[in-house]
Amino acid sequence: MKIALGQINPTVGDFSGNSAKIIQFAQQARSAGAGLILFPELSVCGYPPRDLVERPSFVTRNRESIEKIAAETQGIAVICGLVTPADADTGKSVMNSAALLREGRIEFIQSKMLLPTYDVFDEMRNFAPAKSQQLFDFCGKRVALTICEDAWNDKHFWNRRLYGVDPVEELIRIGGNLVLNISASPFWLGKRELRSDMLATIAKNDNVPVAMVNQVGGNDSLVFDGSSLVIAPDGRVIAQGKSFVEDLVYFDSQTLTGEMHEQIEGEVANAYEALVLGTRDYVRKCGFRCVIVGLSGGIDSALTAAIAVDALGAENVIGVGMPGPYSSQGSIDDARQLAKNLGIRFELISINEIYEATRQTLSKVFAGFPEDATEENIQSRGRGMVLMSLSNKFGALVLSTGNKSEVAVGYCTLYGDMVGGLAVISDVPKTLVYRLSAYVNSRWPVIPQSTIDKAPSAELRPDQKDSDSLPPYDVLDAILEDYVEEARSAEQIAVAHDFDLDLVKRVIHMVDRSEYKRQQAAPGIKISTKAFGYGRRFPIAAKSEL
User: I want to staple 239 with a disulfide (CB 3.0 to 4.6 A). Which of 123, 134, 196, 230 is the partner?
Assistant: First the structure.
């Protein structure tokens, strides 16, 4: 039997658009001779729908859409994800389900049993879990249909299992001989390899083929890489979809042969493509066409602008240089050159008058106080006002340019450089910013070399350098990775890296006390195992005892 994997990019709540995409892919697969096509988890309504599922009309639209899809895809069986009503005794109104459509009707429904509640997932908040699951028969196969997390509890792969039941194991035990998994598995660096290894373990230990179709695209902070897979019982990958783009992949369930579409290789290349896709979908799915980037002449804003151009096209990106009293001519020149290299519109707007007017306005109430970070932040907030004014006037979304290292320790200004609708590189440590910039220039040298070579500086006071306030970025990033992503203690971090314990404690204190800033920041694009945002939920009013 020829089976297709419909790796599509759905939009949450876009029932008509998602349905049209499902129908189009299904009809194309039918024309190619496929007897069955799989679509991702909750592909009818988009993932993650979060609290939208609490609206009765949202559930109704799922049912109406699935009936329309069934009517327009006759001649090929279709499996796609949707929201279905739950039993009243569960306390939840809906379930995360998969429907098998055949000959114009819903023939079979399977609901998700394992509902993740870690990192960015909070499915127990919205869904009732399935109490049981069944097989269905199709073309001589007894099919075990699973939904994303249902396949992530294999005892042969995980030393520490999160659930007391393994749905795949149970379905194989009652006779399943083909595992199909429809997923919305978010991307982070290393996830594709982990997912492939985990599915291969299932295939080899249960001696069955495993096919997984994964969503692609960006929805809010999450990026889905696609990279759909089919794995033979011996663990070989026999079919795979592309990364970060929609794709249609075919395989034969009898001969265990399939199409191998090229995937992006390398950590830096994958990170860059994830940021581009996340930016493109966030901007477009939020209804914007054009974006604005404040160009300081530094490497963070340069990388952000390059990502924006690759995501949206140069014609949809506006760069704004906003020199202040301490901006160097070199930084102004670098910003202008970057804009020229990228082919984007560039505006140069001085903030000197805004800065002086604000200082004059506050001079009486500030009398007798020495100058400090307050005056520095007036510059940053003046720039924020300029960017948001342009945003309002032109209907363009501002992209903020702070990296993960800065955001982690609060080296950023509320209502200043933090303004914007999307924090593109807020999950990119400074050391990775340099690697990504080198990757950008390896394809086409657009970021000026002087931008890369100069010492990082906010240029808010004479001869200011980031190193005046922060440890070297290679040291800072090592501490942040261990503390934020691995939850290691100050003592463990100091010993592991031979760092000064007091330095590690100071960095951790900066991270903890900056939580109030991060919770007011624009959403970012998640590319690490632990990004700031709704996947990392810490209290603001809390005392950190190191």
Answer: 230
* Assigned superfamily of 270-466+514-518: HUPs (3.40.50.620)
Give the start-to-end residue ranges of the domains of the chain. Answer: 2-265, 270-466+514-518, 471-513
* DSSP secondary structure letters along 1-50: -EEEEEE----TT-HHHHHHHHHHHHHHHHHTT-SEEE--TTTTT-S--G
Q: Kindly name the residue from 92, 112, 430, 517 that is annotated as catalytic.
A: 112
The model's pLDDT over 290-323, given as tens digits with 9 standing for 90+, comes to: 999 999 999 999 999 999 999 999 999 999 999 9
Catalytic residue, chosen from 41, 149, 273, 515, is: 41
Active site residue 491: no
DSSP character for 243? Answer: B
- Token readout for 183 is 């997923």
Beta strand 94-102 pairing with 77-85: antiparallel
Q: Does residue 148 have an active-site annotation?
A: yes
Both tokens of 461, joined, read: 């006071």
Q: Quick one: tokens of 326? A: 């301490």
Given 45, 148, 290, 412, which residue is catalytic?
A: 148
pLDDT number for residue 545: 65
Determine the Cα–Cα distance for residues 25 and 132; give it in Å rounded to an integer.
31
**Tens-digit pLDDT profile for residues 49-84:** 999 999 999 999 999 999 999 999 999 999 999 999
What tens digit of pLDDT does each residue of 196-227 get?
999 999 999 999 999 999 999 999 999 999 99
404 is catalytic: no
Whether a cis peptide bond, with omega within 30° of 0, leads into 167 is: no
The reported pLDDT for the residue numbered 159 is: 85
Q: Which fold has domain 2-265?
A: Nitrilase/N-carbamoyl-D-aminoacid amidohydrolase (3.60.110)
Q: Which residues contact 229 (CB under 8 A, 6 or more apart)?
A: 195, 196, 199, 210, 211, 212, 214, 237, 239, 240, 241
